[in-house]
Amino acid sequence: MANKFLWRTNQLISVIPEEYDGALIMSEINGRYFTGFNCDNGYFIVTRSGCVYVTDSRYTEAAGKALDWCEVMEYSGPDMKKTFCGISQKLGIKNLLVESDRMTLTQYRMMSEVLQPAALAADGGLDKLIESLRVHKDSDEIVCMKAAQNIAEQTLKHIFTFIKEGVTEADLAFEFEFYARRLGAERLAFDSIVASGENGSMPHAVPGQRRIQSGDFITFDVGCVVGGYHSDMTRTVAYGSVSDEQRGIYNIVLRAQQNAMDYLFAGGDDLAECDAAARDVIKAEGYGEYFGHGTGHGVGLEIHEFPSVSYRGGKIPENSVITVEPGIYLPGRFGVRIEDMLYKTETGAVDLTSMDRELIILG
């Protein structure tokens, strides 16, 4: 395990431009990626001369056990400048890249002060380097994501048995979290979306006190976390009965999703073309204006990662995990979204979601 994180750290060092001595990583997410240690107050200093992980007394012992391949140091508030200046001098640091997308101005000013005489460069370069490494998922990461997805699927199947007329969206969201945690989820990947009836026209509706009634479409956008890695899935089901219009729109969204997935299965690797594969189906049926968001996004240690499946385009990196989630949302009436999570391979893609996508009518 330690070798994997040392390898990742060395990969980062190898792509840092020669004019910089190294990098300072402060964000919890990126710190976890490179060290395997989850800490909300860690400072990982990576240089060609060596690496140091600095934290406070709450985490020193645990960090020492987790990072047996890296020097771990403890600091206290009053001695913070002394500790970091000492590290800067010991490693001969003149300049460091920092995570400009994840660092506040206050943090930048503080670290500029305590790391003197080293200068900090917040030009966005480090963020792009880390993004380029994190997008390629290894086998351990995929195992965690599949486990998270499996829990989400088992839990959603349980929720389908829990649905009855009169139960509220909030009831369903609470039951999902309770059951998923019992199955082993560390936590939810995000606040579950449960949107019924007219609320389904809002892609990110917040579960409320609306009660399920016959004739409703109910959209569930849910995910779990295992080993720090997220899953993401959306299913829209019907309760009681469906109209011809509801069924027709559901089938349009299903065809749109299948078209985009088929593009990936066949080896397609352009983000804009993948987006168009779904969007063009919906446009051709006259509902283009009711599909306003991108077709998907990357998933991993965060629920939304690079890349974005949208008209902006770009290549889909090999070994990345992306979602395919087209939808149609009719304001004040109902909505449909279907989402799977796919792993991009050298020759195609693998669907990490196994739950049925055909329209399910409950009740």
Structure description:
- 37% of the residues lie in helices and 22% in strands.
- With 363 residues, it is an alpha+beta fold.
- It folds into 2 domains: 2-134, 3-Layer(aba) Sandwich (Creatine Amidinohydrolase, Chain A, domain 1); 139-362, Creatine Amidinohydrolase (Alpha-Beta Complex), CATH 3.90.230.10.
- It has a 6-stranded mixed β-sheet, with helices on both faces. A 4-stranded mixed β-sheet has the order 8-9-12-20, covered by helices on one side. Strands 7-10-11 form a 3-stranded antiparallel β-sheet.
- α9 runs antiparallel to α10 (271-284).
H-E order? HEHEEHEHEHEHHHEEEEEEHHEEEEEEEE
Class from secondary-structure proportions: alpha+beta
Considering DSSP H and I runs of 4 or more, what fraction of the residues is helical?
25-40%
The total of helices stands at 10
- Please give the order of strands in the largest beta sheet: 4-3-2-1-5-6
How are the SSEs placed, and which strands pair?
Elements: H1 2-15, E1 22-25, H2 28-35, E2 43-47, E3 50-55, H3 60-66, E4 71-74, H4 80-90, E5 95-98, H5 105-114, E6 119-121, H6 125-134, H7 139-162, H8 169-182, E7 187-188, E8 193-196, E9 216-222, E10 224-226, E11 229-230, E12 233-239, H9 244-265, H10 271-284, E13 296-298, E14 305-309, E15 321-324, E16 327-330, E17 334-337, E18 340-344, E19 349-351, E20 361-362
Parallel strand pairs: 1-5, 3-4, 5-6, 12-20
Antiparallel strand pairs: 1-2, 2-3, 7-10, 8-9, 9-12, 10-11, 13-14, 15-18, 16-17, 18-19
Helix pairs in contact: 7-8, 9-10
